[in-house]
Amino acid sequence: MDFSGIVKAVEDFWGFVWPPIVCLAFLFGIVAFLAPHSFAAARRHFVEMRPSGPWEINFVKSLKRFGFDKLVPLIALFCLLFVLDVVGTMVVVVGMIVPPSITYNHEAWLIGHARDSDVQCLAVSYGEDLDFADLQRRIERSFSDAEEAHKDSPILALVRDWGKKDWQAQVAFYSCKFFVLCILVTTCVEITLTKVSLGGLLRSLGCLVLFSVAAGFFFFQIIYAKGERETYLVGAARAYTPSARISCDSTPADEKQTEYLKLVEGEQHKYGSRPKWWFAKETDADYFEWLRKEIKGQ
Asked: Can you tell me the distance from the alpha carbon of 45 to that of 41, in angstroms, rounded to the nearest whole number?
């Protein structure tokens, strides 16, 4: 029997469940560590919660009379899955909003690697009057076309793998920013409700430093993963573009290569030989503009 479908379903379910569970564990841990009195009071209130009023008691009796109480485990499971989905989405979305945000200029990456043999072969093979923005679009299009015809290609698998690592690093980076925000909010609420000691402030400072260092680690991991994906993306486009293979095999420089080298000299004179292709900004203006349009229904 083929159990690959069952194994895949279990892997997908586990991949859906474990990130929000970890996020909830961190959230409860942060609150319990930074606001122990408030956390203990909330836990005590939750444990002692019982149907007390007449309406609540009659509602519970009605559920038992019609047998609806047997559906409580299914309803609880549905609510749990719903909460996990909301938590996982909320952590990523809020983390995207919290500064700083990272922006990328893939044209600048190509300019910095313009003299690499793979990039040069692709630029020459794609034709004349080609700038680096067009070159980036053509490379992406070549990769998409190759994916349809060569799904099992090792180099295409590497591009997908680094893209997956890039997204995983982004999720971890957004989560760290979200937890930094939670630490600040929890500390402010605890200061408002109770008198926080010096030890409490030091605990908050330690948590801030810990998650800030983790965010910095994932920040550079994102940049590294994106750079590796771009490298393998160029290699994949070269491997599955016949005209690029011909250009790479021809050793003498023709007119197209001369024009391309002139374009490279002009761009590198303008931006530098290794221009910076990623930037950290305080806020993501494009995201807020998209959010405004979504709210207004434009």
From this structure: 6
